[in-house]
Design goal:
Structural class of chain A: alpha+beta
Strand content of chain A: 15-25%
Order of helices and strands of chain B: EHEHEHEHEHEEHE
Structural class of chain B: alpha/beta
Strand order of the largest sheet of chain A: 1-8-3-6
Number of strands of chain A: 8
Radius of gyration of chain B: 15 Å
Distance between the termini of chain A: 40 Å
Strand order of the largest sheet of chain B: 3-2-1-4-5-6-7-8
Shape of chain B: globular
Distance between the termini of chain B: 30 Å
Oligomer: heterodimer
Number of helices of chain A: 9
Number of strands of chain B: 8
Largest sheet of chain A: 4 strands, antiparallel
Helix content of chain A: 40-55%
Radius of gyration of chain A: 18 Å
Shape of chain A: globular
Chain lengths: ~190, ~170
């Protein structure tokens, strides 16, 4: 249940066995079925979530009812609405499961305890947040300057098996392009090979 | 609209727990029932509230893994084997033990205090009521967990009285 979490943490930070045992007691193991919500717009985000198994997405719904996907999270990734989690303000996001998921959830109070008891995890989460900032910055730049093909290539590089697991219309939404543009782009890339 | 949370009930409720379940189905929670022979009980629930989202599942570990809150609805099922199955998947979760005798303090023998020792990282909440009453005594070491159960019981039409604290859990 905790193998992937251990692997991800120890890729950047050393943890003793005792420290990881403490870590395990602070996460909530949760199974979520496909299409179940972890967070709905208007809720206060109660958890930072680690994905042991499955795929989640984070999205907003605009005034026209269109879903705009902000993030996917596959195995080994984290997902949350950090603004809502840290400020205790209502979230504007929805997070739901695209597959049956096995998750590890941590609440704000448990997260504080975790970081207090295991200072090494301060480094881990600092690196995690740094990387998230870099990815967000690159994604913003991509939205402004990249072609559809460049956006799609970046996505495949980060999530190699995503096209097998996520519907096309959701990938298009995430990339900020239409389904038709995505289809054309994929066709052109395939023809070039 | 809040994301729907899951209450998992272990065992087919007897008496009090049955009354509580009939109330719970009218709250926003999704109910997951772990029982091998629950069809008749489910049919009765559906007659009462046709839109009830109640599902059954055979595996106690899987059911408690899906849970946000676990209710031990049939306390005769509680033994070390059951505890071992749910221990890992009930970490940091609220586990409700229902006592069907109205008393003003948790019983000394077994039950809630022992349960806290067996599930050291779960948040045990003890609830006591009688069949004819809509009043319940409640106790727990974790105030947030107690408040959550008080709210659920209030939504189910119960008035609660906080009695003595249970021993400290180890959920930090």
């Amino acid at each position: 249940m905790y193998e992937l979490l251990h692997k991800k943490i120890t890729e950047t930070t050393s943890l003793t066995e005792e420290e990881f045992e403490v870590c395990k007691t602070l996460f909530i193991p949760k199974k979520l079925r496909k299409r179940q919500y972890l967070l709905q717009e208007g809720d206060i985000c109660k958890y930072i979530t680690f994905v042991q198994k499955g795929v989640l997405r984070s999205y907003m719904v605009d005034d026209k009812g269109s879903e705009n996907i902000f993030q996917f999270a596959l195995e080994g990734w984290w997902i949350s609405d950090l603004y809502s989690f840290l400020t205790r303000q209502p979230s504007q996001f929805n997070i739901d499961a695209l597959e049956n998921c096995e998750l590890l959830l941590i609440t704000p109070s448990s997260w504080d305890i975790l970081l207090e008891k295991i200072p090494a995890l301060e480094r881990y989460f600092r690196i995690l947040i740094q990387n998230n900032l870099i990815v967000t910055q690159r994604r913003l730049m991509g939205a402004l300057y990249e072609t559809a093909e460049e956006k799609y290539s970046s996505l495949i590089e980060a999530f190699p098996d995503i096209v097998q697991r996520v519907p096309q219309h959701m990938i298009a939404s995430y990339l900020g392009i239409t389904r038709e543009t995505l289809s054309r782009t994929r066709r052109q890339m395939a023809n070039r090979k | 609209m809040a994301a729907q949370e899951t209450i998992t009930m272990v065992g087919i409720p007897k008496d009090i727990s049955r009354i509580l379940v009939h109330s719970l189905v009218q709250t926003p929670y999704r109910l997951l029932l772990i029982a091998t022979d629950a069809d008749q009980f489910i049919q009765q629930l559906l007659l009462q509230v046709p839109q009830t989202a109640v599902e059954t599942i055979d595996c106690v570990r899987e059911g408690c893994w899906e849970a946000d809150i676990i209710i031990l609805a049939d306390t005769s099922l509680i033994d070390k084997a059951l505890i071992e199955k749910i221990k890992e998947v009930s970490i940091q979760k609220i586990v409700v033990y229902i006592s069907e005798h109205r008393v003003d303090r948790p019983p000394d023998f077994i039950e809630s205090k022992d349960l806290q020792i067996l599930l050291p990282y779960s948040k045990i909440v003890w609830v006591s009521t009688t069949q004819a009453s809509t009043e319940a005594a409640i106790a727990g070491a974790d105030q947030t967990a107690v408040d959550t159960i008080v709210n659920i019981l209030a939504q189910s039409g119960y008035q609660t009285t906080l009695v003595e604290q249970l021993p400290e859990n180890r959920s930090h």
